[in-house]
């Protein structure tokens, strides 16, 4: 049944363990935001997302086994 649900939900479905690891990584990395008052989509925030958050999140998820 779980396989059918995963098929139906498509690639957006993730296990509870994956969700927990993703949340933990986000909590670790949100402290590195250069200025939390920068609006979403600002140049500084986009550069941070591309150059800092993205690669660091990938490494964090690898450490957690994903």
Brief summary of the model shown:
The protein has 66 residues and is mostly helical. The protein has 3 helices and no strands.
Features:
66 residues; mainly alpha
Number of domains: 1
Name the average pLDDT.
84
Beta-strand segment tally: 0
State the share of residues found in helices, binned by percent. 55-70%
Main sheet: strands, sense, barrel: none
Low-confidence runs? none
Order of helices and strands: HHH
Distance between the termini: 23 Å
How does the overall form come out from the CA principal axes? elongated
Beta-strand content bin: under 5%
**Which structural category do the helix and sheet elements fall into?**
mainly alpha
Count of DSSP H/I helices: 3
Using only CA atoms, what is the Rg? 15 Å
């Amino acid at each position: 049944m779980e396989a059918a649900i995963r098929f139906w939900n498509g690639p957006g479905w993730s296990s509870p363990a994956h969700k927990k690891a993703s949340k933990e990584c986000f909590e670790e990395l949100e402290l590195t935001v250069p200025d939390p008052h920068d609006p979403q989509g600002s140049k500084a925030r986009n550069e941070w997302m591309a150059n800092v958050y993205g690669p660091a999140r990938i490494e964090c998820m690898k450490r957690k086994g994903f």
